[in-house]
Amino acid sequence: MLECVVNVSQGSDQIMLDSLANAVRKDLLDLHSDQHHNRSVFTLVGELAPRVLARNAVLHLTMNDHVGVHPRLGVIDVVPFVPLADSTMSDALRARDEFAAWAVDTLQVPCFLYGPERSLPFIRKHAFSSLQPDVGPSAPHPTAGAICVGARPVLVAYNIWLANTPLARARAIAALVRSDTVRALGFQVGSSTQISMNLIDIGVVGPADVYETVSQHAEIERTELVGLATAHTLAPISSTEWERLDLSIEKTIEWKIAARARDLRAN
Predict the structure, then answer these.
(1) Rounded distance between C-alpha atoms, residue 252 and residue 66, angstroms
(2) Domains of the chain (ranges plus CATH)?
(3) pLDDT digits over 155-176, tens only?
(4) pTM
(5) What average pLDDT does the structure give for the chain?
(6) Which residue among 16, 102, 211, 221 is the one 20 to 30 A from 187 at the CA level?
């Protein structure tokens, strides 16, 4: 089974988000939206649902009036395929390449590929300057921009909201947290600031570790798991700490997949 964590550049239009979610409902494990990032994370399973979601998003959304604190290249910004049980990174790479070819052929949206070749941050830094799309036109789609299509292991997207901390300080803390296994940016989100992170190797650095590091430099207002974690993420953390870290069994990929299987059997 492949997981696909599609990031859509829309986080405030609830009617539109409901419409997009309903189109992929049977394969949707989780939907997380943020109006300040103006971004929604659809956690899907399989290879069909990402295409259905992409087709609908390109049809109904535009980058021309998009405003949000999170960096983005397109209305369908990121499409990473992630191997779960009984699948491999080779399966994820095949799905990545086939999705990119489909997106160009069907939607005429150029695609940048990430994975073994290069990282997503590298694409964000160099896209349409020193780096041209791997597949499709050399210029962005007039309304949909471009898509970053990837193949990667499981990661944890995690936000820590700071109390009484100016943006410059939040960015400095993000730089302190950043490492080979933690990607971190500091954002202004409304009246608060936030450290937004991807924990790309939770066997090395997990939510409890970044919480401890950040707490040494600022007062923490709250934490936020974006999308789903894994049971492996929770395993080394005492269950008494889960609520403080916004973790729970019900927010794991394993629990959601089991719930989906029960629903499919019932229907």
Answers:
(1) 31
(2) 2-151 (3.30.990.10), 156-256 (3.30.70.670)
(3) 999 999 999 999 999 999 999 9
(4) 0.94
(5) 96
(6) 16
